[in-house]
Amino acid sequence: MRPISGNTGERVVLHLISASAAYPSTFVLREVQELRRLGLWLVVGQLRPMFARMSTAGFDDVASLVIKPRWLSLDFIAGLTYWGRKQPRRLWRCLVLILRSRPRASDLLKMLYVLLASTLIAYKCRSSREKHVRAHFLHTEALAALFVSHLTGSSYSITVHTVATHFPTMLIREVLRGAAFVVADTHQVEEFLQTLGVRRGRIRLIRNGVPIDELSFRYGQDVLNPPVILAAGYFSRKKGFDVLLTACGLLLQRGIRFRCVLVGDGEERNNLMSLRRKLHLENEVEMPGDLSFDKLRTWYYRAALFVMPSIVPPNGSTDGLPTVVIEALACGTPVIGTDTAGIPEVLVDGRTGILVRAGAPEAIADGIQMLLSHETQRESLAREGRRLIEQEFDLRKNSKIIANLIALHATVPFTITPTT
Predict the structure, then answer these.
(1) C-alpha R_g of the chain
(2) What pLDDT was estimated at residue 418?
(3) Residues 105-116: pLDDT tens digits?
(4) What H or E segment, with its residue span, contains residue 182?
């Protein structure tokens, strides 16, 4: 099997992506695109799904960068054999790290899978002389970055987005300790990382950027009548979309004219559809499923306002700072959000958005009714929200910071030379 190699062999970045549902996060693919534009030669190592290629819809230029282990091929044996002969002590150290963390049986199987996937991806990159391994999320990707780093001798970095961990704390601390640099996308995550032993000086606060040139400010230009209340995201419990539907039920009882468009899909879809029927909202609430970025952007411009009703469910998981909130603000769509996770870091109540209590449908309904009745307030929030995005969430500016950090901390440091 022919190994992957870069154009110069000197500036290769291996970007690890785990997409258990086959759809990687948009902001991760955006970073890959921007790092390429800045002159880095990248390959994308797909950790999951195991037997299918992850979707790169809307990111056609990224598709050719993806390398995926072929599990029903000789790769399975070749990767383990290669590293077992070339770096037996390093491979053994990876296994010892797993066993020493005393994982639960389910975690043990998952971590062994990550180790195996790491050996296969590292084997495919064995001749590329990659100088840095990049990962998002303090989970599968970060653990794989540690393993690939041990095997190849490359440096690695992690961007952390939430305050949840899924592997034993001892192992997470080891992953963070070995990283060349650690990025937090919110102050909430920054404080969380410090509780895991990461010194403040090692943490860089870099926001998840959005392409502000593709999200032009068009407040009120395409707004529909009746006014559209837009929400979007993966249908999980922590998103709180059931709370939004309950708020819509209250608006219906109050005689408020509206149309709610709930974009997305996921494990809670059937429950949400049942709640929609129970509240007699079939005519008011649309659930079109997952939409492409271009189609979702069209809805940002059509909507009178956007709602992010995140909650903290009983299992304690939190939402981070949803990218859809940033995109909506960039487009000039006023946003109502809840006081949980990283949302209050961008929604300053009454200035850049409306902030309400999490899990309180009455508060959401009141906020929606108030904004629909006050055009001046909506426009003021839209303009201040856009100003914040331009200052802190510019994808190109923030990606350049990441690229310079990679160049500085790579196994062999180099200089960034943009391709365009």
Answers:
(1) 22
(2) 64
(3) 889 999 999 999
(4) strand 181-184
Would the pTM count as exceeding 0.70? yes
Q: Give CA–CA dist 115/111, Å, rounded.
A: 6
The answer to the question of residue 370 being in a domain is: yes
Is the Cβ–Cβ distance between 14 and 43 less than 8 Å? yes
The residue length of the chain stands at 420
Say if CB 20 and CB 48 are below 8 A apart.
yes
Residue the block writes with tokens 């559209």: 228
Q: What is the DSSP letter of 398?
A: H
Q: Give the chain's domain count.
A: 2
The CA distance from 303 to 335, in Å, is 10
Work out the angle at residue 314's Cα, subtended by the Cα atoms of residues 308 and 320, and round it to the nearest 5 degrees. 40
Place of tokens 């990248």: 42
Residues 173 and 259 in one domain: no
Mean pLDDT computed over every residue of the chain: 91
64: exposed, middle or buried (Cβ count in 10 Å: 0-12, 13-18, 19+)? exposed
Which contacts (CB < 8 Å, 24+ apart) does range 366-371 have? Answer: 367/336, 368/229, 368/247, 368/251, 368/256, 368/258, 368/305, 368/307, 368/336, 369/251, 369/254, 369/256, 371/304, 371/305, 371/334, 371/336
Give how far the C-alpha of residue 142 lies from the chain's centroid of Cα atoms, to the nearest Å.
13
Token pair belonging to 409: 């901390």
Q: pLDDT tens digit string along 26-51?
A: 999 999 999 999 988 899 999 987 77
User: CATH number for the domain including 403?
Assistant: 3.40.50.2000
**140 touches 47 (CB < 8 A):** yes
Domain enclosing residue 92, as ranges: 12-209+395-409
Listing from the earlier edge strand, what are the strands of the sheet with 259-263? 285-289, 259-263, 228-232, 305-308, 335-338, 354-356
Q: Is residue 3 part of a domain?
A: no
Tokens of 364: 């959401």
Q: Which residue(s) pair with 230 in the sheet?
A: 261, 306
